[in-house]
Amino acid sequence: MDFSIKTEDKKNALHNMKTDCIAVGIYENKILSSAARALDADGAITAVLQSGDLTGKPGSSLLLRHIKGIAAPRVLLIGLGKDEIIAEKDFSVAAKTLTQAFSSLGAKTALVALPLDKVRNRPPEWAIASVFSAANEKAYRSDAMKSKKDSSNEGVRKITFYLPGTQAATARDALARASAIAKGVNLAKDLGNLPANVCTPAYLAEQAKKLAAAHQFDIQALDKKQLQSLKMGSFLSVAKGSDEPPKFIVLRHNGGKAKEAPVVLVGKGLTFDSGGISLKPGAAMDEMKYDMCGAATVLGVFAAIGEMRLRQNIIGIIPSCENMPSGHANKPGDIVTSMSGQTIEILNTDAEGRLILCDALTYAERFRPETVIDIATLTGACIVALGHHNSGLFTRDDEAHNLLAADLLAAGKASGDTAWRMPIEDAYQEQLKSNFADMANIGGQPGGSVTAACFLERFTRSYTWAHLDIAGTAWKSGAAKGATGRPVPLLCTWLFNRENAS
Ligand code: BES
Ligand code: MN
Ligand code: ZN
Question: Ligand 3: distance of its center to the CA of 206 in Å?
Fold first, then answer.
């Protein structure tokens, strides 16, 4: 998909525009948007509304052909809902309807003349990003492993936004940002959807190296020996049950001043989670190839920040291994010593994400970070709590963390990639008590996503930190099975906002 901008002026009047299709908005109660009015000299659009063939409700659309006096052979009417100040949700639905219609037309090029500046409490940039992400979502194919590729040449290939000259500069920025996010989302989806026999820890390290070469990031992929000398006893205990060698990937984007404290993103990279000796049930176990979606998110965000050349120091850390049952695997009751020196009694080998993340979080200390955010498909309990709509956001409850949480939640809302805040409190910490080690790796069923976050919290006390549990949001099950690329949009938007604030 290709996107561009055309500014409206006298010689670019809408009815003269050469394109295969013009999309304009229609409201309920038979009201035309100003672009629709501009195309209605002949009365054809008014006649359609009078006939009742189009309600104008969000989700409704109608294609008209060969209207007299209009150069474009097609006019696509898109319902925008009741109010001329459009509700955010109504515009999102309209954007999806638009791109769905585009995908099934004989048209190759289209001009979008929707009222981008009429969305309630959102700037035109938001509306542009919303159409962009809907089009990107629609065009995505997961056919890397198919012998015959799905056709992607159908429908509109080039979308041009038609807008006033005053909006052009910000619109160009918005396109650049939306395009960077889309690349990041697609990379995260591609990696997530690959099977575990292809997407191994070594494969993730290779992909990180490619990304580093493309965008001049510093890259390290530490192997088992190096991890042993770092004393990552907790991470290595999970890795040792598998024949796939572990990798600990460190990516560095040095876009800020040399002394500026970095943001560190830590992504859970379990390329397969069988549960280990505490083996998972067989049903849908294939979906545990998605247990590296935190890692895929970090790589996706790096693709986007490389593209945008952000002027910030950003570090990505990916501990990656498999969780398998074998003669070398962790056994329930085993006690391991983490890099921090704290000892952990492994009461359930399926609570392995926290065992690899805790050492990565300790490793992050060496960067004297401004903020650390970990991203992990950490707990089934988070799906019970929040379903598939929101990622779980966990931070401590103090001034600095409340500010961070507010910024992350706002970035989620703005990008349509939402999170919901969950508690971290001392009361829950008691559930992690062990009779034999400093802590247990599970806290029982009640509040399972909270006790998992509380476990991680014990390794993050020297910096400002947030944890995103993406178990419910990183992929879809059932007929639409596939990675979502979340929370790449949330994190990119947070980083872009951070750039503008400084
Ligand atoms: N990767 C899983 C979490 C998960 C399960 C994500 C299902 C999405 C869907 C994680 O490693 C895990 O197995 N967690 C256990 C923790 C329990 C043993 C305390 C869980 O959620 O059951
Ligand atoms: Mn597990
Ligand atoms: Zn897992």
Answer: 22
Could you tell which of 350, 354, 431, 467 is best to mutate to test the pocket of ligand 1, judged by most ligand atoms within 8 Å of the CB?
350
| Residue among 354, 396, 458, 486 flagged as catalytic | 354
Q: Which domains does the chain have, with CATH numbers?
A: 2-162 (3.40.220.10), 181-501 (3.40.630.10)
Cα 136 from Cα 304, distance rounded (Å): 15
Ligand 1 site, residue 350, Cβ cutoff 6 A: yes
Say if ligand 1 is within 6 A of residue 291 CB. Answer: yes
The model carries a pTM of 0.98
Can you tell me the distance from the alpha carbon of 309 to that of 296, in angstroms, rounded to the nearest whole number? 20
Q: How far apart are CA 48 and CA 64, in angstroms?
A: 9
Q: Tokens 């503008």 identify what position?
A: 500
Residue with tokens 């474009």: 72
Q: Is the CB of 377 under 6 A from ligand 1?
A: yes
Q: Which of 57, 240, 280, 413 is catalytic?
A: 280
What is the tens place of the pLDDT at every residue in 314-342?
999 999 999 999 999 999 999 999 999 99
Of 276, 317, 274, the C-alpha closest to 295 is 317
In angstroms, the CA 98 to CA 340 distance is 52
Distance CA 186, CA 192 (A): 10
**DSSP character at residue 119:** B
CA dihedral 7, 159, 183, 406 (to 10 degrees): 60
Helix axes 168-193, 124-139, angle to 10 degrees: 30
DSSP secondary structure of 208-239? HHHHHHHHT-EEEEE-HHHHHHTT-HHHHHHH
- C-alpha to C-alpha distance for 55 and 76, rounded to whole angstroms: 14
Tell me: the pLDDT tens digits for 145-178? 999 988 767 899 999 999 999 999 999 999 999 9
